[in-house]
């Protein structure tokens, strides 16, 4: 049996090939606004996509610049705080048996007004240290108050100084607050000003 169907005489065929040209009545009657919108649609879409992409790139660049500035500030803060903490621990730890070494170490880390004042009063400071009891200073906390225009940093520091009474039976602890100004000279930080806050 053949799957083909036989067409009887006078029966209309199932598949008819189109005759002539297809009707174009729709394209001829299409409104002009539709033609214009098709004509400008792709360029407008491309322009809008370009504007959105440019805005996204600009936002990414601004966020990157802001992040990098924050990172640099954090690194600078960490560097100055590490130095000031170490300096203040050394400054508040007094050993009367090595008074000359103490004064020399402090002078090596001093600059500006602090160095001048410390140098002018070095003999008085030396005598005061030689007569004092040994102390052990620790830094309780420190934080950057502000960065100055000359590149120096003003740092607030809280210290605790522990010393023994003259009879050696009692430990006396004092807490102090300081305002230290640290300035970088070359690759080394130095103290340019140091004030005790009451």
From TrEMBL:
Subcellular location: Membrane
Keywords, in A-Z order: Membrane, Transmembrane, Transmembrane helix
GO cellular component: membrane
Transmembrane segments: 40-65
The name this protein goes by in its record: Mce associated protein
Native organism taxonomy: Bacteria, Bacillati, Actinomycetota, Actinomycetes, Mycobacteriales
